[in-house]
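Need a sequence for this fold. Nothing fancy.
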């Protein structure tokens, strides 16, 4: 069974991957095929856990390739904390593309005073897209970063993971890929 962790980004996705690296009966990766185009983009090995916020922009193709045969995790973090993390990366990455090209429709910058609102809008949009995608999926769970120690145990049990659970759980105490100033 393949497992896909869907998220906005800036919500613990790197840590989720690091924790999954201690699972023996699944391979795992973080954004491993994000630079590929179809059909290779979705050619994941069997029994693989893929953590990639970019998948939220390819949900139709993900459904075409895996449908209800995969297990899906909606990784979430407090929306204001996520938006503030994106704000620290305002000039690059997905939030830069979202603010300057997707919602503006051209290459001009929004006034900085609107930036947090744009980051919140991005998070709400991505989470809404994921919620819609998961509406008809049978194997799914919501995973809250703020509840990682409990939710990771539920995830571990639901996928019948084998490996070093304690080492996996310890990864949630390490801040990976933190934004500047927090």
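Here you go.
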């Amino acid at each position: 069974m393949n497992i896909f962790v869907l998220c906005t980004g800036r919500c613990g996705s790197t840590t989720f991957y690091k924790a999954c690296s201690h699972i023996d009966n699944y391979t795992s990766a973080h954004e491993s095929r994000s630079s590929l185009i179809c059909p290779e983009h979705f050619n994941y090995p069997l029994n693989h856990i893929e953590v990639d916020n970019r998948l939220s922009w390819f949900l139709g193709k993900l459904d075409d390739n895996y449908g209800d045969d995969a297990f899906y995790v909606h990784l979430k973090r407090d929306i204001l904390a996520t938006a503030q993390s994106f704000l620290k990366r305002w000039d690059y990455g997905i939030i830069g593309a979202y603010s300057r090209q997707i919602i503006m429709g051209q290459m001009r910058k929004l006034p900085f005073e609107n930036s947090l609102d744009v980051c919140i809008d991005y998070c709400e949009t991505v989470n809404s897209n994921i919620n819609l995608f998961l509406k008809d999926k049978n194997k799914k769970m919501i995973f809250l970063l703020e509840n990682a120690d409990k939710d990771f145990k539920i995830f571990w049990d639901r996928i019948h993971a084998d490996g070093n659970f304690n080492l996996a759980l310890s990864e949630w105490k390490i801040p990976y890929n933190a934004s500047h100033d927090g």
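For context: The first strand starts at residue 3 and ends at 6.
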